[in-house]
Amino acid sequence: MVVLSLSGADNVRSLKGMPTADGRRINGHHIVRSDQLYRLSFEDWHRLQQLGVKTVCDLRSSGERERYPSRLPADDMQHLHLEVTGDMRADPQIAAMLANHPVAEGARRMMLEVYRRLPAMLAPHLAKLFGLFSSGRAPVLIHCAAGKDRTGVAVALLLHALGVAPQRIMLDYLLSARRFGDLDGERQEAMSNAVNHMVRQPVSVAAIDAVLDARPEYLMAAYAAIDAEFGGIESYLRRFSGLDETGVHTLRNTLLS
């Protein structure tokens, strides 16, 4: 994979070169994953254009897009909105988990519930996402707000369809872990305001760290929900990816070498 150093985003990487279990590799910058793009500079966008990005797939809610618009610079770069039911942390039931326990453990419980819900929230959009790679619209940049939760599960499912080993998928997911102290001042303020507004009270830095973190148990909670609700990842992908066995074979031959 290739970690991209951009001035306006800090969780951007191409999955070029990622190996699959059968010995092949993703053979180009077909899949790029990122946090939100509203701060990208002209030079940042130029870097993405150099990678050949044709489609930006935005998993954020309409409200998030209005507050932080991406403003794609080129007519030849398409913008696809796949709204994954907004930011579920704004759901009062989920937010209450942190509001009632505004410390690290409350944030952890909230994040586990977010991940349990993500597979069902992503399901209606998977066929459109997977279809981008068979319709000439790749390379695709997939992003949400942090590039970790919605994007993390969506990319994990795509990598599974490509035959990437679970351990590799987890290692890629864990690269999105962040801590509050690592953020610049503007992002610290934005993150604090967002979390405090969500629960209508101040929360600890440790709680914010739990929200920013990428933990194995978070992604495993999504997998457990897929097993319980849909009979496993293979069954889930057959039902929602829009790909039959031939389609999976074609996808792999297109993106792998």
Largest sheet: 6 strands, mixed
User: What's the number of helices?
Assistant: 12
Instruction: Provide the gyration radius in Å.
Output: 18 Å
CATH-level-2 architecture: Alpha-Beta Complex
What's the layout of helices and strands?
Layout lengths: L1 E2 L9 E2 L16 E4 L7 H9 L4 E4 L3 H6 L10 E4 L10 H8 L4 H19 L3 H6 L8 E4 L6 H12 L4 H9 L10 H15 L5 H8 L3 H15 L2 H8 L4 H11 L2
Parallel strand pairs: 3-6, 4-5, 4-6
Antiparallel strand pairs: 1-2, 2-3
Helix pairs in contact: 3-4, 4-9, 4-10, 6-7
Family: Belongs to the protein-tyrosine phosphatase family.
GO molecular function, one term: phosphoprotein phosphatase activity
Protein name: Protein-tyrosine-phosphatase
Describe the overall structure.
The protein has 257 residues and is α/β, with parallel strands linked by helices. The protein has a six-stranded mixed sheet with strand order 1-2-3-6-4-5, covered by helices on one side. The longest helix has 19 residues, at 104-122. Helix 3 runs antiparallel to helix 4 (104-122). It has one domain: Protein tyrosine phosphatase superfamily (Protein-Tyrosine Phosphatase, Chain A, Alpha-Beta Complex), CATH 3.90.190. The protein has helices spanning 42-50, 62-67, 92-99, 104-122, 126-131, 150-161, 166-174, 185-199, 205-212, 216-230, 233-240, 245-255; strands at residues 2-3, 13-14, 31-34, 55-58, 78-81, 140-143.
